[in-house]
Amino acid sequence: MRSRIKSTAALAAITITVGAGLVGLAGRADAKQTPLPLTCDGQQFTVRVNSSNSSPNGGWSVGQIVDGGTGHGIPTKISSTVVDDLHPQTQFTSEQLKGRGNANHNQPTINCDLPPISGMLRDFIDPATTLPDDISLDDPATLTITVTVVRQP
After folding, report:
1. pTM of the model
2. Burial of 141 by CB count in 10 Å (0-12 exposed, 13-18 middle, 19+ buried)?
3. Domains of the chain: which residue ranges?
């Protein structure tokens, strides 16, 4: 099981974009690197990812495990959900697939979760979004992010 979890490092740097949810971004190999905590199948890791916001291929890049194991991996899907905490309702979901969903080339994948991010609903969705009457942009909200990766030794 531990060897499958090596794939947790396959995460591009994550940035939240208003109205679009989240986008995995990574830049050149010499770009500034950022540590990122992940939980994969209950195991904790820290991965090193590029923090550059540019990429000729849409921001999908390899990450490297720096704590909790060894290896690297390639992200194939990034999913996010924004929940209004005051009224436990999902207000936004997003799913981005690399290579139109064919990026894993039938290789085994594993799902990894970033720590939840808390804020106000306005931090995670487009302020022009029409909301139900009982929901406010000032409501507390939580963003959860799951990254699916292909393991590489």
Report:
1. 0.73
2. buried
3. 2-76+93-114+143-152
